[in-house]
Design brief:
It is a single chain. The protein has helices spanning 18-21, 29-33, 49-64, 89-96, 114-127, 213-220, 225-250, 267-276, 286-292, 299-309; strands spanning 3-12, 14-17, 39-42, 73-78, 104-107, 133-140, 160-168, 174-182, 257-261, 318-325, 330-337. The strands form three sheets. It has a five-stranded mixed beta sheet with strand order 1-7-6-4-5, sandwiched between helices. The relative contact order is 0.18. It is 32% helix and 22% strand. Helix 3 (49-64) crosses helix 4 (89-96). It is of the alpha/beta class. The protein is globular, with a radius of gyration of 19 Å.
Protein backbone atom coordinates (compact mmCIF):
# COMPACT_ATOMS: atom_id res chain seq x y z
CA UNK A 1 0.00 0.00 0.00
CA UNK A 2 1.56 3.30 -1.10
CA UNK A 3 0.98 6.54 0.78
CA UNK A 4 2.41 9.94 -0.09
CA UNK A 5 2.42 13.47 1.28
CA UNK A 6 0.08 15.60 -0.84
CA UNK A 7 0.42 18.88 1.09
CA UNK A 8 2.06 20.35 4.18
CA UNK A 9 1.21 23.28 6.42
CA UNK A 10 3.30 24.83 9.18
CA UNK A 11 2.77 27.31 11.99
CA UNK A 12 5.17 28.79 14.53
CA UNK A 13 5.34 30.92 17.61
CA UNK A 14 7.08 34.28 17.57
CA UNK A 15 10.65 34.08 16.28
CA UNK A 16 13.18 35.15 18.93
CA UNK A 17 16.94 35.60 19.01
CA UNK A 18 18.81 33.06 21.15
CA UNK A 19 21.51 35.43 22.38
CA UNK A 20 19.09 38.23 23.23
CA UNK A 21 16.78 36.01 25.30
CA UNK A 22 19.27 33.58 26.90
CA UNK A 23 19.18 35.51 30.20
CA UNK A 24 15.49 34.62 30.58
CA UNK A 25 16.56 31.00 30.94
CA UNK A 26 19.56 31.56 33.23
CA UNK A 27 22.19 31.24 30.50
CA UNK A 28 24.92 33.54 29.33
CA UNK A 29 24.52 34.36 25.61
CA UNK A 30 27.84 32.70 24.78
CA UNK A 31 26.79 29.47 26.51
CA UNK A 32 23.48 29.39 24.63
CA UNK A 33 25.12 30.10 21.29
CA UNK A 34 27.62 27.26 21.73
CA UNK A 35 24.80 24.82 20.98
CA UNK A 36 24.70 26.27 17.46
CA UNK A 37 21.23 27.84 17.46
CA UNK A 38 20.62 31.39 16.29
CA UNK A 39 16.86 31.70 16.78
CA UNK A 40 13.84 29.78 17.99
CA UNK A 41 10.05 30.18 18.22
CA UNK A 42 7.95 30.83 21.32
CA UNK A 43 4.19 31.11 21.66
CA UNK A 44 2.87 34.41 22.89
CA UNK A 45 0.99 34.36 26.17
CA UNK A 46 -2.55 33.10 25.65
CA UNK A 47 -1.73 31.12 22.51
CA UNK A 48 -2.01 27.33 22.76
CA UNK A 49 -0.68 24.14 21.23
CA UNK A 50 -4.20 23.35 20.00
CA UNK A 51 -4.51 26.66 18.18
CA UNK A 52 -1.00 26.25 16.75
CA UNK A 53 -1.83 22.76 15.48
CA UNK A 54 -5.08 24.06 14.02
CA UNK A 55 -3.28 26.76 12.03
CA UNK A 56 -0.82 24.27 10.54
CA UNK A 57 -3.60 21.80 9.73
CA UNK A 58 -5.77 24.49 8.15
CA UNK A 59 -2.92 25.51 5.89
CA UNK A 60 -2.26 21.91 4.86
CA UNK A 61 -5.93 21.36 3.98
CA UNK A 62 -5.98 24.59 1.97
CA UNK A 63 -2.83 23.57 0.07
CA UNK A 64 -4.42 20.20 -0.69
CA UNK A 65 -7.61 21.89 -1.89
CA UNK A 66 -9.90 20.00 0.47
CA UNK A 67 -12.01 20.75 3.52
CA UNK A 68 -11.98 18.87 6.79
CA UNK A 69 -14.91 16.75 5.54
CA UNK A 70 -12.52 15.24 2.98
CA UNK A 71 -10.43 13.66 5.77
CA UNK A 72 -11.01 10.07 6.93
CA UNK A 73 -8.75 10.09 10.02
CA UNK A 74 -6.90 12.68 12.13
CA UNK A 75 -3.63 11.57 13.75
CA UNK A 76 -2.02 13.96 16.23
CA UNK A 77 1.46 13.82 17.77
CA UNK A 78 2.00 16.14 20.74
CA UNK A 79 5.54 16.12 22.09
CA UNK A 80 5.34 18.35 25.17
CA UNK A 81 3.05 18.77 28.16
CA UNK A 82 -0.63 18.90 27.15
CA UNK A 83 -2.69 21.93 28.07
CA UNK A 84 -4.68 19.84 30.55
CA UNK A 85 -4.37 16.44 32.21
CA UNK A 86 -7.00 13.76 31.58
CA UNK A 87 -7.69 15.40 28.24
CA UNK A 88 -7.24 14.35 24.60
CA UNK A 89 -5.45 16.93 22.41
CA UNK A 90 -6.40 15.03 19.24
CA UNK A 91 -10.10 15.63 19.91
CA UNK A 92 -9.34 19.28 20.71
CA UNK A 93 -7.51 19.70 17.39
CA UNK A 94 -10.45 18.09 15.55
CA UNK A 95 -12.81 20.56 17.24
CA UNK A 96 -10.49 23.41 16.29
CA UNK A 97 -10.86 22.33 12.65
CA UNK A 98 -14.65 21.97 12.83
CA UNK A 99 -14.50 18.21 12.30
CA UNK A 100 -17.59 16.07 12.84
CA UNK A 101 -17.53 12.29 13.42
CA UNK A 102 -13.96 11.92 12.09
CA UNK A 103 -11.97 9.47 14.25
CA UNK A 104 -8.87 10.84 15.96
CA UNK A 105 -5.86 9.25 17.64
CA UNK A 106 -3.10 10.74 19.80
CA UNK A 107 0.61 9.93 20.15
CA UNK A 108 2.66 11.38 23.01
CA UNK A 109 6.10 9.75 22.76
CA UNK A 110 7.87 13.10 23.17
CA UNK A 111 9.89 14.04 20.09
CA UNK A 112 9.52 10.48 18.76
CA UNK A 113 5.76 10.91 18.35
CA UNK A 114 6.03 11.69 14.63
CA UNK A 115 7.25 8.16 13.80
CA UNK A 116 4.43 6.03 15.30
CA UNK A 117 1.92 8.67 14.16
CA UNK A 118 3.08 8.31 10.56
CA UNK A 119 3.16 4.52 10.88
CA UNK A 120 -0.38 4.53 12.27
CA UNK A 121 -1.61 6.48 9.25
CA UNK A 122 -0.02 3.94 6.91
CA UNK A 123 -1.38 1.04 8.96
CA UNK A 124 -4.88 2.50 9.02
CA UNK A 125 -4.87 2.76 5.23
CA UNK A 126 -3.59 -0.80 4.91
CA UNK A 127 -6.37 -2.13 7.15
CA UNK A 128 -9.21 -0.12 5.61
CA UNK A 129 -9.34 -0.01 1.77
CA UNK A 130 -11.87 2.81 2.01
CA UNK A 131 -9.52 5.12 3.89
CA UNK A 132 -8.08 7.51 1.32
CA UNK A 133 -6.95 10.62 3.22
CA UNK A 134 -5.33 11.05 6.64
CA UNK A 135 -4.50 14.37 8.28
CA UNK A 136 -1.28 14.08 10.28
CA UNK A 137 -0.70 16.91 12.78
CA UNK A 138 2.51 17.25 14.83
CA UNK A 139 2.87 19.96 17.46
CA UNK A 140 5.37 21.06 20.08
CA UNK A 141 4.63 23.84 22.56
CA UNK A 142 6.99 23.98 25.52
CA UNK A 143 5.54 24.38 29.00
CA UNK A 144 7.99 26.81 30.56
CA UNK A 145 6.60 25.89 33.97
CA UNK A 146 7.85 22.31 33.56
CA UNK A 147 11.20 22.66 31.83
CA UNK A 148 13.85 25.15 30.80
CA UNK A 149 13.72 25.32 27.01
CA UNK A 150 17.37 26.35 26.76
CA UNK A 151 18.84 24.10 29.43
CA UNK A 152 17.14 20.73 29.19
CA UNK A 153 18.80 18.52 26.59
CA UNK A 154 21.58 20.56 24.96
CA UNK A 155 18.95 21.98 22.61
CA UNK A 156 16.90 25.15 22.35
CA UNK A 157 13.30 23.97 22.34
CA UNK A 158 10.92 25.73 19.98
CA UNK A 159 7.15 26.08 19.58
CA UNK A 160 5.78 25.03 16.22
CA UNK A 161 3.51 22.66 14.35
CA UNK A 162 3.43 20.85 11.03
CA UNK A 163 0.55 19.08 9.34
CA UNK A 164 0.49 16.82 6.32
CA UNK A 165 -2.34 15.60 4.12
CA UNK A 166 -1.49 11.96 3.43
CA UNK A 167 -3.15 10.28 0.47
CA UNK A 168 -3.34 6.70 -0.67
CA UNK A 169 -1.42 6.21 -3.92
CA UNK A 170 -0.02 9.75 -4.00
CA UNK A 171 3.07 9.56 -6.25
CA UNK A 172 5.27 12.09 -4.42
CA UNK A 173 6.97 12.04 -1.02
CA UNK A 174 6.07 8.38 -0.64
CA UNK A 175 6.58 6.51 2.61
CA UNK A 176 8.61 3.39 1.81
CA UNK A 177 9.43 1.75 5.14
CA UNK A 178 10.12 2.46 8.79
CA UNK A 179 11.87 1.00 11.83
CA UNK A 180 12.08 1.75 15.53
CA UNK A 181 14.03 0.33 18.47
CA UNK A 182 13.77 1.11 22.19
CA UNK A 183 16.24 0.62 25.03
CA UNK A 184 14.05 0.54 28.17
CA UNK A 185 17.12 0.60 30.44
CA UNK A 186 17.02 4.37 30.01
CA UNK A 187 13.27 4.77 30.55
CA UNK A 188 13.74 7.41 33.27
CA UNK A 189 16.06 9.69 31.31
CA UNK A 190 14.75 13.25 30.91
CA UNK A 191 11.57 12.61 32.82
CA UNK A 192 9.82 15.64 34.33
CA UNK A 193 9.91 14.85 38.01
CA UNK A 194 6.89 16.63 39.43
CA UNK A 195 3.28 16.90 38.27
CA UNK A 196 2.52 13.24 37.54
CA UNK A 197 0.69 10.78 39.78
CA UNK A 198 3.91 9.59 41.47
CA UNK A 199 4.81 13.09 42.67
CA UNK A 200 1.93 15.46 41.84
CA UNK A 201 3.34 18.35 43.89
CA UNK A 202 6.97 19.39 44.20
CA UNK A 203 8.45 19.57 47.72
CA UNK A 204 8.91 23.03 49.21
CA UNK A 205 11.87 24.73 47.59
CA UNK A 206 12.05 22.27 44.68
CA UNK A 207 10.70 22.37 41.15
CA UNK A 208 11.10 20.91 37.70
CA UNK A 209 13.04 23.89 36.36
CA UNK A 210 15.62 23.49 39.13
CA UNK A 211 16.49 19.96 37.99
CA UNK A 212 19.07 19.39 35.26
CA UNK A 213 18.32 16.08 33.49
CA UNK A 214 21.78 16.03 31.91
CA UNK A 215 23.37 15.93 35.37
CA UNK A 216 20.98 13.15 36.40
CA UNK A 217 22.14 11.07 33.43
CA UNK A 218 25.78 11.66 34.32
CA UNK A 219 25.02 10.45 37.86
CA UNK A 220 23.29 7.38 36.40
CA UNK A 221 26.63 6.41 34.90
CA UNK A 222 28.34 6.98 38.26
CA UNK A 223 30.05 10.08 36.91
CA UNK A 224 32.28 7.82 34.85
CA UNK A 225 33.37 9.65 31.68
CA UNK A 226 34.09 6.38 29.88
CA UNK A 227 30.60 4.99 30.53
CA UNK A 228 29.08 8.27 29.38
CA UNK A 229 31.19 8.15 26.22
CA UNK A 230 29.99 4.59 25.61
CA UNK A 231 26.41 5.86 25.97
CA UNK A 232 27.05 8.51 23.31
CA UNK A 233 28.52 5.83 21.03
CA UNK A 234 25.39 3.74 21.61
CA UNK A 235 23.24 6.67 20.47
CA UNK A 236 25.12 6.88 17.18
CA UNK A 237 25.35 3.11 16.72
CA UNK A 238 21.64 2.50 17.29
CA UNK A 239 20.78 5.35 14.92
CA UNK A 240 22.82 3.70 12.15
CA UNK A 241 21.21 0.35 12.98
CA UNK A 242 17.64 1.63 12.77
CA UNK A 243 18.31 3.43 9.48
CA UNK A 244 19.88 0.27 8.05
CA UNK A 245 16.88 -1.73 9.25
CA UNK A 246 14.48 0.59 7.43
CA UNK A 247 16.67 0.48 4.31
CA UNK A 248 16.65 -3.33 4.34
CA UNK A 249 12.86 -3.36 4.61
CA UNK A 250 12.67 -1.04 1.61
CA UNK A 251 15.22 -3.02 -0.40
CA UNK A 252 17.62 -0.08 -0.45
CA UNK A 253 21.11 0.66 0.87
CA UNK A 254 22.94 3.56 2.52
CA UNK A 255 24.50 4.64 -0.75
CA UNK A 256 20.98 5.46 -1.97
CA UNK A 257 20.44 8.11 0.72
CA UNK A 258 20.38 11.67 -0.56
CA UNK A 259 19.79 13.32 2.81
CA UNK A 260 19.37 12.69 6.51
CA UNK A 261 16.70 14.72 8.28
CA UNK A 262 17.42 14.30 11.98
CA UNK A 263 15.87 16.00 14.97
CA UNK A 264 16.77 19.70 15.14
CA UNK A 265 19.45 18.89 17.67
CA UNK A 266 22.55 20.92 18.49
CA UNK A 267 25.07 21.16 15.66
CA UNK A 268 27.53 18.66 17.15
CA UNK A 269 24.85 15.99 17.49
CA UNK A 270 23.50 16.46 13.95
CA UNK A 271 27.00 16.34 12.46
CA UNK A 272 27.75 13.13 14.38
CA UNK A 273 24.45 11.58 13.24
CA UNK A 274 25.26 12.34 9.59
CA UNK A 275 28.78 10.97 9.96
CA UNK A 276 27.39 7.76 11.52
CA UNK A 277 25.62 7.18 8.19
CA UNK A 278 28.57 8.20 6.04
CA UNK A 279 26.95 11.47 4.96
CA UNK A 280 28.53 14.95 5.04
CA UNK A 281 26.80 17.42 7.39
CA UNK A 282 25.64 19.55 4.45
CA UNK A 283 23.37 16.65 3.46
CA UNK A 284 21.52 16.91 6.75
CA UNK A 285 19.16 19.43 8.32
CA UNK A 286 21.96 21.06 10.35
CA UNK A 287 21.64 24.47 8.68
CA UNK A 288 17.85 24.53 9.15
CA UNK A 289 18.12 23.62 12.84
CA UNK A 290 20.08 26.80 13.56
CA UNK A 291 17.08 29.00 12.84
CA UNK A 292 14.18 26.70 13.70
CA UNK A 293 15.14 25.40 17.11
CA UNK A 294 14.07 21.95 18.32
CA UNK A 295 10.40 21.62 17.37
CA UNK A 296 9.91 18.27 19.09
CA UNK A 297 7.78 15.88 17.04
CA UNK A 298 7.44 18.46 14.25
CA UNK A 299 11.19 18.61 13.45
CA UNK A 300 11.34 16.08 10.63
CA UNK A 301 8.22 17.16 8.76
CA UNK A 302 9.05 20.87 8.97
CA UNK A 303 12.61 20.29 7.79
CA UNK A 304 11.55 17.93 5.00
CA UNK A 305 9.15 20.54 3.66
CA UNK A 306 11.72 23.34 3.93
CA UNK A 307 14.17 21.28 1.87
CA UNK A 308 11.44 20.57 -0.72
CA UNK A 309 10.45 24.23 -0.96
CA UNK A 310 14.08 25.27 -1.36
CA UNK A 311 14.53 22.88 -4.28
CA UNK A 312 17.18 20.91 -2.37
CA UNK A 313 15.43 17.59 -3.03
CA UNK A 314 14.53 16.25 -6.46
CA UNK A 315 12.12 13.59 -7.68
CA UNK A 316 13.20 10.06 -6.85
CA UNK A 317 15.72 10.95 -4.15
CA UNK A 318 15.69 8.93 -0.94
CA UNK A 319 15.48 10.73 2.40
CA UNK A 320 15.83 9.26 5.88
CA UNK A 321 13.66 10.93 8.49
CA UNK A 322 15.37 9.78 11.66
CA UNK A 323 16.01 10.63 15.26
CA UNK A 324 16.48 9.64 18.84
CA UNK A 325 14.02 10.54 21.58
CA UNK A 326 15.74 10.82 24.93
CA UNK A 327 12.61 10.15 27.01
CA UNK A 328 12.25 6.48 26.39
CA UNK A 329 14.87 6.00 24.76
CA UNK A 330 13.68 5.45 21.20
CA UNK A 331 15.52 5.43 17.88
CA UNK A 332 13.41 5.68 14.73
CA UNK A 333 13.61 6.05 10.96
CA UNK A 334 11.09 6.48 8.16
CA UNK A 335 12.22 6.45 4.55
CA UNK A 336 10.63 8.91 2.15
CA UNK A 337 11.11 8.79 -1.64
CA UNK A 338 10.77 12.26 -3.12
Amino acid sequence: MEMGIAAVGTAFGERLDVAQTAHEYGLEPAAALRMGYESYHRLKRGDTATALAGRAAGQALQEAGIGIDGVDLIVVGNSDMPEYLGWDPSAAVARELGARDIPTVLFTQSCAAWAPALDHAAGAMALDPGMETVLLVLVNAVSDAHSNRMDFNATVASDGAAAAVLRRGHPRLRRLASAQVTNPEYADFFRIEYGGSAAPVAPTGAGNRELDPKIAIYHYFNRDPQRFEEFEEEIRGRLAHVVDLALTRAGRKRADLARLIYINDNQKAIHEAAEALGLPPDRSNAALARGLGHLGAADQLVSLWRHVEAGELTDGQLVALAGVAAPGMHWMCTLIEV
